[in-house]
Amino acid sequence: MKDQKIELVVFDMAGTTVDEDNVVYKTLRNAINKAGYDYSLNFVLEHGAGKEKKQAIIDILAQDDINDIPLAEAIFSDFKVMLKKAYDELAVTTYKDTEQLFCNLKDKGIKVALNTGYDAKTANLLIDKLGWKVGEHIDMLVTASDVEHGRPGPDMINLVMENLGIKDSSSVIKVGDSIIDIEEGKNANCGYSIGVTTGAHTREQLQTANPDYIFDSLKELESIL
After folding, report:
1. From which domain of life does this come (predicted)?
2. Looking at domain 8-20+93-224, what is its CATH homologous superfamily?
């Protein structure tokens, strides 16, 4: 590992630390297809994973040269209603060893933050279902609705650093399951941008973003610290 003290690890949520069986992207696909389309889950993941969800809808439709903002907004409104119902019925779990990894990092004096392309309401519902608390299990949660520009921009990571008193971005690691997570880490000038294969994108897809590492589980992160 580079000769740099790590002060903070920023983890993505769904597909990285939170296993919710892709319910968000399945619901996103259903909401778009309800409007008259026929996209596969893989297509939705390829073009929408990790993004703020209205932007994901816009970008997915744009693959077919559909540039209709009112349509995207209508689908997004439908999606939020459908997602609330799906989450009310969902049993959310975390990936194996995630909570222990958080504890181990904190024992080393490394802060732990979560960031996500979800809005604050959805993200908080997830961590409530897991029983995670800010100040106990994690040091901060930041969501797409907390910043002006979502991924791949660096705003969420910059906000975490500002609030947790981290001055040097090279002391930060970003970990996520999608290409846009890796791009976000690079745009924030993180010391390391790491992909994990447990979620949206395959190892081959993640490799196109040139991450510093690709792991098959979060536990592998400890091997480089």
Report:
1. Bacteria
2. HAD superfamily/HAD-like (3.40.50.1000)
pLDDT, residue 119, reads 85
* 152: amino acid identity, one letter: P
One-letter amino acid for residue 129 of the chain: K
Q: In whole angstroms, give the CA distance from residue 123 to residue 11.
A: 13
Helix axes 69-88 and 120-130, enclosed angle (nearest 10) = 20
192 CB contacts (<8 Å, ≥6 apart)? 2, 173, 174, 185, 212, 213, 224
Contact 49, 15 (CB under 8 A): yes
Which tens digits make up the pLDDT trace of 130-164?
999 999 999 999 998 899 998 899 999 999 999 99
Q: Indicate the domain borders of the chain.
A: 8-20+93-224, 23-88
Task: Report whether 151 contacts 180 (CB < 8 A).
Answer: yes
Q: First CA to last CA across the chain, in angstroms?
A: 7
Could you tell me which residues come within 8 angstroms of residue 139 by beta carbon, excluding any fewer than 6 positions away? 111, 112, 113, 164
List strand residue ranges (DSSP E) for 59-110, in order: 93-94
